[in-house]
Amino acid sequence: MEARIEEWKTYLAKHAAIDGQDIDELEGHLRDQVDELRAAGLDEDEAFLVATKRIGNLNAVSREYAEVHSGRLWRNLVLADGVPGLNFSRELMAALLFAVAAAISIKLPALFGIGMEDDAGAWFYQRNITLFSLPFLGAFFIWKRELGFRGLQVLAIGILIAAVTMNVYPLEVSDSTAILAFIHLPLVFWFVIGVLYTGDWWQSQSRRMDFIRFSGEYAIYYVLIALGGAVLTAFTLGMFAFIDIDVEWLVQTWVIPCGAVGAVVIAAWLVEAKQAAIENMAPVLTRVFTPLFTILLMAFLITMSVTGKGFDLQREVLIGLDLMLVLVLGLVLYAVSSRDPAAPPGIFDLFQLLLVVAALLVDVLALLAIAGRISEMGFTPNRVAALGENLVLLVSLSGYAWLYLRFLRRQAGFTSLERWQTNYIPVYVIWALIVVVAFPPLFGFV
């Protein structure tokens, strides 16, 4: 019983709106409930389960405390254990240290004469941007999850893949395989981050779902930080321009690159710190943009059928089309991960199905166009990459469409969608790894 209560308290402590005194009070209520239920004849396991249910949903409890103690909520996110003072929490200090380390790393090449101003230096930074940012996020999770040497091994494998492909391979900025590797490498490394985030990635489907939720929240927080940084940069340039001092060089070579890689860690800390303390933004945005993207894709398909125009399969068009489909898939992924599996089908689920079907039709049209171009003009790295990615998306979207249809017709539960989502994640990563590692030598580094 004591072990269960300690585990319950540990989970409760993650709710930033609740401090140590609140946890003690709730623990007292829990123990009183357990004693009453034991006296009524329930065994230990039953008493604990019923007592926790009586206290209520922890997220709801956290929101109630947040409404009463809104000022304390933000103090708890920053200060150590919610105690007033100037001592920052250990987790925030660790995040800041890893963020500073990332900022330092992106300036280290300058000591060896590799600057961002010339073309050769700019290409070096572009192809190694993953190494300047994501390894420090991985190190933060190794520290936080206490993964030790096992976590360092996983991170080292990711760093080795990134370092070899982007620096040992003879890649040039004009090569198609170089651009494809540059685009796909962050996805491969994000999978490494997922392994470190979950700690037991292959053993727990719920932890994989947690990482999908984290990824959605993370993307939003990073964009918000970037927007805030853009405003701050504009004000910096403007203020110094008032006194006729040019600080553009400082902004371009220090503020922007150091801030961009440092924010990679800070955004993760923000997501972790406010988790379950205040309402998540990603589910709300998903419900707003799902109908809008559904209307957009429907209008796009209708326009194509009326005008008879097909895709102009230039490289930029292929990349833009795949990014759009990936964005739609991201909306579906997060909608599935943030939905209550026990809730019955609703109107939003119908919109999800329409969005998936529309994206599936666009994907099929793109595949037909790509296949036609390959049959006419032969294989190139871009066409093969586009063909593979659209096939991967075709299978994924087809699975979603079929399972959503069965769910809406009440022929299957929502958990089947969740299993499809989590089990298919390695397929995305494997294809991205093939593009990063195999494509350059396969196509002669062109």
Number of strands: 0
pLDDT below 50 for ≥5 consecutive residues: which ranges? Answer: 78-87
Main sheet characteristics? none
What's the number of domains? 3
Category by helix and strand content: mainly alpha
**Percent range of helical residues:** over 70%
What is the rounded distance between the termini? 64 Å
* Strand residue percentage: under 5%
Task: Give the rounded overall mean pLDDT.
Answer: 82
Taken from the alpha-carbon principal axes, the silhouette is: globular
Instruction: List the helices and strands in order.
Output: HHHHHHHHHHHHHHHHH
Rg (CA only)? 25 Å
Number of helices: 17
Protein name: DUF4153 domain-containing protein
Transmembrane segments: 92-112, 124-142, 154-171, 177-198, 219-243, 249-272, 284-305, 317-336, 348-372, 384-405, 425-443
Keywords: Membrane, Transmembrane, Transmembrane helix
Organism: Pseudidiomarina salinarum
